[in-house]
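User: I've been going back and forth on whether these two constructs are worth ordering. Before I decide, could you fold them both?

Assistant: Sure. I'll take them in the order you sent them. The first construct and its structure tokens:
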Amino acid sequence: MDIVRVWNFSDPHRYLDSEEFKTLMMNVVDMIEVGSVAKRDRTMAFGVLGESVYDMQQIRWVVLQHFIAYIADLTLILQTLHLVSDSPELSRRAIKLAVASYLDSDMSAGVHGRIQKYDTHLPLSESVDQGALNEVVKLTESFSMEAEDISKLRAQIRAFGSGEDDRW
């Protein structure tokens, strides 16, 4: 993943490329509550074709919101990991602690809340791609860890010492 590479972590065990980390990230993204195609009011008199177009547009918005969430969540988790990890190489323990602290923080709720409010009534077009990118940039610039939280997480990582690493 290019986003992971930019952070230049010392990850000789390739934890950030592992299926376990990808699953962990998908679980984070799945916590976002976005609209469901099945919940819409089908009493609108569009006919079958109209319903299909509407359903496809709704599915595209759900996918777009999940895409925005994935990129924003991943970026902020990696930022957290970068700020708290003072070890020469990454451990599963540090990764799991960064993810857990992100999920327990106001950042996660704030990011997902903003994504849920992302305007899904705009017509889908090529400009949506730029809009989604702009939204990711705004989200990652708006949310970050406080210095106090960083210190607490660093202390937690150090408290575990250099013993055996956690399992996924």
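The second construct, handled the same way:
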Amino acid sequence: MKKSTIKRITGFAAIAMSAAIFAGCTTAKTTTQGNDQTGNTVKIGVNMELSGAAGGYGNQMKQGIQMATKEINSKGGVNVNGKKKKIKLIIKDDKTSTSTSASVAAQLVNNDKVNAIIGTATTNAGTAAIPNETKAKVPALSPSATDPNFTLQKDGKVQPYVFRACYQNNFQGGTGAKFIYNNLKAKRVAVLGDNSTDYGTGLAKAFKQQFKGKVVDTQYFSGGDKDFNAILTAFKNKKIDAIYAPGYYSEIGLIIKQARQIGLNVPIVGSDGMADAKLVQIAGAKNASNIYYTTPFSKTVAKQNPVAVKFMNAYKARYHTEAPTFSALAYDSTYMIKQAIENEKSANSVKITKGLANIKDFNGVTGKITIDSKHDATKPIAVEHLNNGKVVGSTQIK
């Protein structure tokens, strides 16, 4: 959290400050602002959707964060300029609400005085938190916010304290367009996107801009919608080759189920919002065939990465289930903050911000990650294939 600059320093205090500078001491009160590390812990806030529409993602992320933190602390903690400091997590539920997310961010930076924040899962909630994070000079690393503008200010400049551990929608939507055209050989496509989120509208826009075939129809739905039969029947009558449906598992699961029930069996391709076991529960395993989605964490690809294999084995031992995408992203986010602290030899929030901006070739569970000049993550992407509710293969897109 950012403390206001102390403007009046007199007498002994001024002398002491000068001595500290010449001694090479760096504290929040002398060389930087922001929240400094105090005592034997580094405080990491978690502003996460643990309930509400995106609660499925948030709880998976919580598990990844907690697992990474336990591993780090079991080895003594984070190395802060030669001294090991344990991570203390302060976890709060933003309830998939923009107003709650803003309030949570204020609490974390002002009351809890965290050194960094992991979260949120969604772009909308994360965007609402930015003013409070920026004012306090505390970096926030979102594992999964994908809207291209998330890390940018209105004038196009980079948000100085905002980062993401995933790729953004233009890249993901373009990958979906390339896969449908080149790999599925589909030339006539209908788009069915979620217009209640920047995530859904952004992906739909990116796909349409980059698809080389013909988009024969575009329709939208809102979060919470249940009946898609009229739209799907219209698609069926237009003799489409595939559907591109970017959105969250809650609605896409129903879209898949209803499409198959009316005999619309063309490939349905979506985005990482489908990477949740609840998708198959909603759609039904039999209906969840000929389904594809872009993802930053494919288990079949990950088996070639020793870091990912270790993570997947540890996750299964701890939680007794296969590691999901959003746990992997959050796990990487936790270790990225650790690396930023250790590279800068400081847990001051401004120093952590600098460390995150300079991450290069971070060897993560979701692949090798570099943070670019826009605070976006450059990393691999894959498309997973579901048949009968099971992942039967994946394709890495270059």
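Notes on the second construct follow. Residues 1-31 have pLDDT under 50 and may be disordered. The longest strand covers residues 83-93.
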